[in-house]
Amino acid sequence: MKELIPLADIIFPGTAEEHILKLITNNPLKSLKENVINQLDYSLLHERHLYQPNLEVSRGCGMGCNFCQEKDERLTNLKSPKLIVAESHRTILFDNLTPMNLYFEASLFASKEEWIDELIKHRQQTKQSFKWRTEARVDSIKVSHLKKLKSAGLEVIDLGLESANFNQLINMNKTKRPEKYLSQASRVIEEAYRNNIKVKVNILLFAGENKESITSTIDWLDKHKDAITGVSVGPVIVFGWQTKIKAYLNALSVLGASVSHQPITGITHLDLSSTIDYKSSIDISKYIGQRYTTSEDYFYLKSFSYFARDYTFEQFNSDCKGIEDQLNFRLV
Ligand code: SF4
To answer: How far is the CA of 249 from the centre of ligand 1 (A)?
Structure first.
């Protein structure tokens, strides 16, 4: 890393948050207690009114999906609703730009009913009505909780389905019981739709992917297309130094994948199988994205959490002109 960034005088492996304050102020953080340090101060940002803010509600996961950095990271408790409403109160601005929403940042959002009740109560007590979005597994959100979650402000779920092919789900170690997993996914999507919660489905093209696995995923998505607001798709990418990723690349090669190329140090792209090379995986990703995501849906989802709050649909449409074939959604 020193060779790659010669001007950097200090390099920390992993996350550096515990060191940043000391670097800048020479005072180390006194308390590293969970839920105390992970509050972001948006007032420090330049043009902070343009940002859709994140609010970190938990870390880690530990569910073991073999492509994921979080697979062995312990899941922390959800941040308390009292802290959340205090943070949202400090953060949310009211103006005439795209409404400010919160992304409840969590690798795996998993709430108990008492937590949802508390959030509803604290929102009412503090007269807040912000909308929020989060990321979940199909089996980390209880179908019976969705109605209450909507009352607590949940507006969009990024659902890490990853595939609807039994073999691929098992190869990813996403689940050992794909049939049950997919029926749970159906129930979550349908119940979310009934409660007017938008679901964006995440799909991962994984090692060993072939025509049959792609077709079964598309068939499954077709059955749910009216209830989903968009699909994000991409092939698995391996991050890390060569010595650290060797074992993982070997494991993926057993499933039929091989190294395609490294566009830059630390990033490895794959040919997923003998029939789906890297380029095909990008084309398939675009095909699936365009099949289920309109430009309106895409703009809605991105404006909710990512686009600058003064970016309009007209500007977006004009920026899309001439690059239609590169987009993972279709222009309508
Ligand atoms: S459930 Fe999501 S966050 Fe957890 S290991 Fe799997 S992909 Fe990663």
So the answer is: 19
Cβ contacts of 172-179, under 8 Å, gap ≥ 24: 172/65, 172/66, 172/67, 172/204, 172/206, 173/64, 173/65, 173/66, 173/71, 174/65, 175/139
Per-position b or e across 27-58, b if 16+ CB within 10 A of its CB: eeeeeeeebeebebebeeeeeeeebbbebbbb
The minimum-distance atom of ligand 1 relative to the CA of 108 is 3
Residue 32 has pLDDT above 80, yes or no: no
* H/E run at residue 192: helix 178-194
Could you give the CA distance from residue 160 to residue 212 in angstroms, rounded to a whole number? 21
Output the CA 171–ligand 1 centroid distance in Å.
14
Pick the atom of ligand 1 nearest to 69's CA: 8
pLDDT in tens, 302-324: 999 999 999 999 999 999 999 99
Reply yes or no on whether the pLDDT at 15 is more than 80. Answer: no
Residue 35 scores a pLDDT above 50: no
CATH code of the region 34-39+47-234+277-326:
3.80.30.20
> Domain extents for the chain?
34-39+47-234+277-326
